[in-house]
Amino acid sequence: MPEESTTPDLELLAQRFVDACNASDFDAVMSLYAPAALVEGAFETYEGGAAVRGLYEDWVGAYEDFEFDVKETRGLGRDVAFVVFAWRGRLPGSSGWVQIRVAAVLTLADGLIRRQKNYTDIDAARAAAERLAEERRSVVEDSGSG
Fold first, then answer.
1. Do the bridges between strand 112-119 and strand 33-40 make them parallel or antiparallel, or are there none, so unpaired?
2. Smallest Cα–Cα separation from 17: which of 78, 46, 77, 59?
3. Are residues 21 and 56 in contact, defined by beta-carbon separation less than 8 angstroms?
């Protein structure tokens, strides 16, 4: 029997996230996360709704102008997803823009983001997502359920 993915419509999820960030609508951002979500960044880990919300409020709020866009989405099965985002922002009083691409490895549950690990190295993120999906497949196969 082929593996059925329980990954929600990933393109829709990613676009809702981008739209919410671009609108500074943090209630909408948080509606995409499980209450006990964990977001791992390069330097810090944010656990729980209040911490995750604070991350986005501080991040988006630091810029006078802020734009977020989805560049790639890929569901890998077993509720694992890989998403590449591009964002750019202009700090207050500056005429220059800060730009970066970030990849996120997502673990989903019931259509919500349960865990998110962010990477600036897109290839490393892709490899990590593929390993995670394979590990989750192996655990299910080892347990005899599918």
1. parallel
2. 59
3. yes
**Phi, psi of 25, rounded to the nearest 5 degrees:** -100, 85
Euclidean distance between CA atoms 31 and 37, whole angstroms: 11
Contact 88, 80 (CB under 8 A): no
Q: Note the pLDDT tens digit of each residue in 51-75.
A: 999 999 999 999 999 999 999 999 9
Nearest residue to 86 via CA among 71, 107, 64: 71
- Answer whether CATH 3.10.450.50 is correct for domain 10-141: yes
Q: State the amino acid at position 134 in one-letter form.
A: E
Strand ranges inside 1-146, DSSP E: 33-40, 45-47, 65-77, 80-90, 98-109, 112-119
How many residues comprise the chain? 146
What's the pTM value of the predicted model, to 2 decimals?
A: 0.86
| Cα 115 to Cα 29: distance, rounded to the nearest angstrom | 14
Single-letter residue type at 30: M
The residue type found at 37 is A
